[in-house]
């Protein structure tokens, strides 16, 4: 059976935008294939504003959420595999959902990598990835508990 998360992510994103809310993703930055700006990662997680005013070239397919965004004025290509998405919620009121673990995402090496034709990596992005990889290795800190809480 295919995983539910990609469908729930796309539906939640559309619902939040339809209600004039600002969608945010809570992401496990240590998940394999996750490309995020490491200087903003805290306790292995990062919160990303994915509203249309904050990102460009947004796509959410069955494998990953991808977009371009600026962080402290610097452009970044962000790739978040579906297995790395912990929650999606509205900044304004916390409406949204935490995603339960799914067996499909328990072995991330079994998931096919994000298509390079979609990302069209340039030389500068490759250098940036190398820097991010080094930062990731030096900053890897697994937290035993999440800072997220359930909002009812």
Q: In terms of per-residue confidence, which ranges show pLDDT below 50 for 5 or more consecutive residues?
A: 110-127, 134-145
Give the integer mean of the pLDDT values: 82
Largest sheet: 4 strands, antiparallel
Order of SSEs, N→C? HEEEEEEEHH
Q: State the separation between the terminal residues, measured CA to CA.
A: 29 Å
What is the molecular shape? globular
Secondary-structure-based class equals alpha+beta
Strand order of the largest sheet: 2-1-6-7
Radius of gyration: 15 Å
In helices, the fraction of residues equals 10-25%
Number of helices: 3
Binned strand content: 25-35%
Total strands: the figure is 7
Textual characterization of the structure:
- This protein is an alpha+beta fold and 152 residues long.
- The protein contains three helices and seven strands; from the N terminus they run H-E-E-E-E-E-E-E-H-H.
- The strands form two sheets. A four-stranded antiparallel beta sheet has the order 2-1-6-7. A three-stranded antiparallel beta sheet has the order 3-4-5, covered by helices on one side.
- Strand 6 (85-90) and strand 7 form a beta hairpin.
- The radius of gyration is 15 Å and the shape is globular.
- 22% of the residues are buried.
């Amino acid at each position: 059976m295919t995983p539910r998360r990609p469908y729930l992510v796309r539906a939640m994103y559309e619902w939040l935008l339809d209600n004039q809310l600002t969608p945010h993703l809570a992401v496990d930055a240590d998940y394999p294939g996750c490309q995020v700006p490491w200087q903003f990662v805290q306790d292995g997680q990062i919160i990303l504003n994915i509203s249309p005013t904050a990102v460009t070239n947004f796509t959410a397919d069955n494998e990953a959420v991808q977009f371009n965004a600026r962080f402290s004025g610097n452009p970044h290509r962000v790739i978040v595999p579906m297995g790395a998405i912990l929650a999606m919620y509205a900044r304004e009121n916390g409406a949204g959902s935490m995603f339960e673990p799914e067996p499909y995402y328990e072995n991330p090496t079994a998931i096919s990598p994000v298509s390079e034709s979609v990302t069209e990596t340039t030389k500068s992005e490759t250098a940036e990835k190398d820097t991010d990889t080094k930062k990731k290795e030096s900053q890897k800190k697994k937290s035993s508990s999440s800072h997220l809480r359930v909002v009812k």
